[in-house]
Input
Amino acid sequence: MPAMSIMSPSGELEPILNKTMADIVEARLREYIRTKNYKPGDALPTEMELAEGLGVSRNVVREALSRLRMLGIIETRKKRGMVITQPDILGSFEKVLDPIMIDEATMRDIFELRLVLEMGLPDLLFPRLTEAHVTELEKIAREEQATDNFRIQNEIAFHGKLYEITGNNTLKRFQSLLLPIFAYVITLEEKPTRGKISHSGLVELLKTGNKEAFRQGMLEHLRPHFDRLEHPTPGE
Amino acid sequence: MPAMSIMSPSGELEPILNKTMADIVEARLREYIRTKNYKPGDALPTEMELAEGLGVSRNVVREALSRLRMLGIIETRKKRGMVITQPDILGSFEKVLDPIMIDEATMRDIFELRLVLEMGLPDLLFPRLTEAHVTELEKIAREEQATDNFRIQNEIAFHGKLYEITGNNTLKRFQSLLLPIFAYVITLEEKPTRGKISHSGLVELLKTGNKEAFRQGMLEHLRPHFDRLEHPTPGE
Output
């Protein structure tokens, strides 16, 4: 295999404090894969070749490779050894999104991020909306009126459907990953707040085909959340 | 330490095909941390205790712990051993966002996601906009007019500043992570397309204080990208 160095290829000095050998080797391997222009399906040198190339122990290489496997960058295939794969870009994101471990500032950031997504969604939603979609949304809104109280499940069903309609799987999955954080913030409230416009109201606006009217409706629907934002965040 | 099992705690049968021992132990440790309600700063049992609790080798536990360390869920501290930390939720996301490895459908998804963010941004931007921010944006727009051609650097400077103004660090960082994908898609175009409204035009709209006028300006600014979306995506 080509010569590799454990040094940063830029030749710049970088802080290595608090970095383990596995951190360094993991970063070097990711960089190696990038600069070699490896494509999904390409085979990687063996563990032993990598250890020799980097001048480190096989244990360290194995540890770094295990991390790349977790990230979905490589996988082990019978007879072919390690090959490059198409990573699941949201896979590891999912593993760290736990409200217990996320600090309050980040949770507030994520909450705001979700509001931004909802307000920008109409531009993706309207070009792809069909009559069948409207019928599905009507059904969800009708079913929740039967229960007549605020339920996080209703929120998930209705808004999740809006994301689904866009046909954008990454976006849909991203919002579903953010849901636990969103639900957590909502449950911290003394009593859940509701905007003036209900899900049924939003469906009516969708049916008019007027994107901007729908967006204003969404703003009213989310108004209680936006009202809390108006004040500059502490620490600014 | 409390009894742990390598089995799924739900007792359900789950597919274990293609899973390595490290995958299984990693998942069990994440679950253990969650169910134990560990908070940042809390100490984790030792490597040996975890290996005994799970009935697996220390090597496998070490491999799984290395992954948790990469995710930023734990860190090793002198004298205290392994402690729970607040993970950097976008850290691993960053490691897999490489245009070379991401498939086309996901890249298109990410491109659309960025458009959604831009269209939803005004609701976060306007409540936090100051005169100093407007001056900074004017400066950026003026400087790019001196160069008078489409430069990805100008896009990054102007739109990046809009995200910065929201004061939402997660959002700002998230969009900067998406930039390489965005830039990659743009460079695939035969010639970069520009909307009718320039960055200077957007600043003028910001100054009017009219959020919806600004949003419509942003739509015009991004129009060439949106026009390509109107057609349903292939495979639908």
